[in-house]
Amino acid sequence: MAGVTLKTVAKAVGVSPSTVSNAYNKPDQLSTALRERILTTAQELGYAGPDASARALRSGKAGAVGVLFTDKLAYAFSDPYAVGFLAGLAEVAEEFSTSLLLMPLSSTDIAGGSNAVQQAAIDAAAIFCVPGGHPALEILANRGIPSVSTDRGDHPDLSWVAIDEVEAAAQLGEHLARLGHREVVVLVDNAGAAGGRPVELTLDEVGYTDCELRIRGLQKAMPDARLRIVSGGHNAIASGLRGAEYVLDSQDRPTAIVGLSDVQALGALEAMKVRGLTPGRDLSLAGFDDIPAAAAAGLTTVRQPIKDKGRAVGRILLDPATTERQLMMPTQLIVRSSSGPAPRH
Amino acid sequence: MAGVTLKTVAKAVGVSPSTVSNAYNKPDQLSTALRERILTTAQELGYAGPDASARALRSGKAGAVGVLFTDKLAYAFSDPYAVGFLAGLAEVAEEFSTSLLLMPLSSTDIAGGSNAVQQAAIDAAAIFCVPGGHPALEILANRGIPSVSTDRGDHPDLSWVAIDEVEAAAQLGEHLARLGHREVVVLVDNAGAAGGRPVELTLDEVGYTDCELRIRGLQKAMPDARLRIVSGGHNAIASGLRGAEYVLDSQDRPTAIVGLSDVQALGALEAMKVRGLTPGRDLSLAGFDDIPAAAAAGLTTVRQPIKDKGRAVGRILLDPATTERQLMMPTQLIVRSSSGPAPRH
DNA sequence: TCGTTTTTCTAGATCGATTTAGAAGAACGA
DNA sequence: TCGTTCTTCTAAATCGATCTAGAAAAACGA
Q1: Element of type H or E holding B303
Q2: Distances from the Cα of B269 to the Cαs of A70, B226, B250, in angstroms?
Q3: Which residues pair with residue A66 across a beta bridge?
């Protein structure tokens, strides 16, 4: 049963291995009759078709694109924003009959050879919100794997599909400033705070480039405001909840909370509800991304075309017709009921 | 730059290729000094570590688990239920430093060798709601790849993690029957109706095993009711919306609509809202899965532990300590405001 | 009919590692 | 001091295909 290879089939049919290979990969290189005969015999022998690894080795094509996520792989699915990206990417991958390889970014043994990014059989990689300088990025670069990032890179030969984080955040900041907010808390994700108690960070301690840029954008637009940075853990509703609890239960309540992602903001929304606070009246709340749930919750947010982002990344990775390798996507401030004038004392 | 292999490094250091290989994979098989020297030289030469495909070929381990989805790959991400499954699976995969390979199920060239399922370099596969008899399943079986399905299989040697679909649906059916509903429309996903107009189906035409079983469960619990089966396309909110529109705008309105997934039901909810119908009063609505949005929408539904399902599948695939290869997960009827007594005429 | 093109098929090298069995030298016990 | 066991390293086979160049046979044109 096992151990049936191209050779076995070739011997059984009485042709060369090359011919059997051609029967599978280049049907027009041999007569229909012979091809038929080969395929039939293969089936009879229980041959399952050319071995994937062997083919990948020899042909140099793995037929898969890798996807690299910020946090733990499982967390990626807790943010509809990340899921939307995947959906867009998957759409293009499907078009090119390419699989998506989601790689865990577990930090163990990055130096040695036994980590997923090192072992992954992929032709290219999409890098989703991975902080620059992460060891996994270096591995990819070393392996010579073409990559596209969702963060704007410094080098001119890097490929990316991004938004103008600073400008997008500034739009939101202007909106809040105009409403009179001077005391603002920003909720960020931070692996360090995961599981533990919420932490207050300085701008330098904010690891992720995009988060940092957004905070800069807010600062730029609201120079008179006091911005505090708080994290309740990784990017998830529960973290936003924890972070907001910490802030709301302290003596030093802000007049506005900005989640750097909608899931963070939705977590904060829950914390407000529990405390009987009405968003937009007692305290303003805003998010980032405009995931579907944001509309339902009446959350003011900055919309970014996430599915298009995924599609664009996919095209750069897979479609040879795509020449533009650095793409700035548009964003849009969506004002809903969760933001309102700062209450006067 | 390119073309640096184990051999190159070996030659440069002046050792055999085996030793270089050991430096990466079996550190205790050589002296620390030599290992150090090899790794340094490798870096200098720009060697990126053992080639993934070659390693996979020789060692017979790909370091990845395949995931097979019902519909188009991109659709998988439109249902939080599927995403929850992925999250659970990813959790376990991460634990075992294994990647997840999402394979598109594009129907093209199933017979030939050039489809993703055939080409995928995977050690095992998770099969999520793929209808039995699908060609891709046969390919996996042929390739001898151990698989676990989310649908209960017939053969005793198949592995699966499932729920008692019939019983789960029967619970919901009883609930509706008790409320006096006799005219029920079931919304199912159906690839055939995708993009086009909603279609009305017979039970035989319902492709997916789990959908069919659920309908049987409903029938069993409400033998006096008239059950109509309608599909607005694949499994997504938009399809539920279309299907419900078709039903609500016809002469023959039911007293209850059951979506065989929550996303279908949420689509129907939108259709009702637009028409000024209050769920639970004017018309009852129920779903399946209990995704997070269901609670927010007040949707009566059947909860299944989807993340646990993903975890369990992952364990069977990856954890050698797991012996139970057929798992029935519990379900629970969650009654919310969307279901109420059938209106009398 | 004969040379030319096209179709059909093959031999052998190669992709880049891992594995097995065993050699050479060092350390060890008596 | 001599045989034995460990440690450290290597030679050669192997994983299972695909590719390149070219041979043999068939079809074609004049």
Answers
A1: strand B301-303
A2: 35, 21, 17
A3: A101, A125
The pLDDT of residue A73:
87
A293 and A264 Cβ atoms separated by less than 8 Å: no
**Beta carbon pairs, A and B, within 8 Å:** 181
Q: Using CA atoms of A72, A73, A76, A82 in order, give the dihedral in degrees to the nearest 10.
A: 120
Mean pLDDT of chain A: 92
Strand C within 7 A of A28 CB:
yes
Q: pTM of the entire structure?
A: 0.93
Cα separation, B243 vs A245, in Å, equals 42
User: Phi and psi for B92 in degrees, rounded to 5?
Assistant: -70, -40
A100: left (phi over 0), alpha (psi -120 to 50) or beta: beta
Report pLDDT digits (tens) over B255-274.
999 999 999 999 999 999 99
In this structure, the number of other CB atoms found within 10 A of the CB of residue A43 comes to 12
Strand D contact with A10 (CB < 7 A): no
pLDDT tens digits along B171-210: 999 999 999 999 999 999 987 666 678 999 999 888 767 8
Contact at CB, A90 and B103, closer than 8 angstroms: no
Which residues of chain B does A72 touch, with a Cβ-Cβ cutoff of 8 Å?
91, 94
Residue A195: pLDDT above 70?
no
Query: Is the CB atom of residue A55 positioned under 7 angstroms from any atom of strand D?
Result: yes
Distance CA B285, CA B298 (A): 10
* Residues A186, A201: Cα–Cα separation, whole Å: 10
A28 is written with which tokens? 């027009």
A173: which 2 tokens? 């900041």
Task: Measure the CA–CA gap between B314 and B148, rounded to whole angstroms.
Answer: 9
- Residue-wise pLDDT tens digits, A283-296: 999 999 999 999 99
